Amino acid sequence: MRKAFDEQLYDKVPINSLILFGIHLAINKGGECSFGELTKVCFGSFPKIFGLSDCQKWPDTRKLDRPLRTLRDRKLIAGNPQTSFSLTKQGKKIALEVAKLFAQKRLL
User: Fold this and answer.
1) Which of 15, 63, 89, 99 is the most buried (most CB within 10 A)?
2) Which residues make beta-bridge pairs with 33?
3) Is residue 6 assigned to a domain?
4) What residues make up the domain containing 36?
5) By the 8 A CB rule, do 82 and 42 touch?
6) Rounded distance, CA 4 to CA 62, Å?
7) Which of 23, 31, 32, 25 is nearest to 72 (CA)?
């Protein structure tokens, strides 16, 4: 599991953008992004956002459920929790913008 990003880097990024970036990370890591892998990547990378509110050491999959449906409705992702997720062209563009934002902040 990757080390979490600095909370100050991701705290102001919208959850949908973090999920798109999480799908991007999962695909780059293993080629496929299952719901379980996405949960692991998002929680490992952004624990404050994707952790249970009363027990931050565990992931909260409910924080992925509705945003994933919204992302699919907006045609930013394809797939579903029973199979796997992939980014559309527009979804990948947003994920790469988030990656660029994180890379720039790290250099400051």
Assistant:
1) 63
2) 85
3) no
4) 13-102
5) no
6) 20
7) 23
Q: Residue 106: which pLDDT band, with cuts at 50, 70 and 90?
A: low
Angle at which helix 89-107 crosses helix 15-30, to 10 degrees, equals 90
The predicted pLDDT at position 19 comes to: 98
- Sorted by sequence, the CB contacts under 8 Å of residue 5 that are 6+ apart come out as 45, 46, 102
- Tell the residue number behind the tokens 């409910």, with chain if given: 62
pTM for this entry:
0.91
Q: Residue 29: how many CB atoms within 10 A of its CB? A: 13
Cα-flanking dihedrals φ and ψ of residue 34, to 5°? -75, 165
How much of the chain, in percent, has pLDDT values that exceed 70? 94
Q: Are 77 and 91 in contact (CB under 8 A)?
A: yes
Number of domains in the chain: 1
CATH of the domain at 35: 1.10.10.10
The rounded Cα 12 to chain-centroid distance in angstroms is 14
Run of H or E residues at 62: helix 62-73
